[in-house]
Amino acid sequence: MARTSCHGCGAELRLDGPVGRRRTCPHCDADLHACVNCRHHDESAPHQCREPHAENVVEKEASNACELFQLGDGASRRRGGQGAAARAQLAALFGEAPPREDAPRDALEALFKKR
Question: Quick one: pLDDT at residue 59?
Answer without folding.
Answer: 93
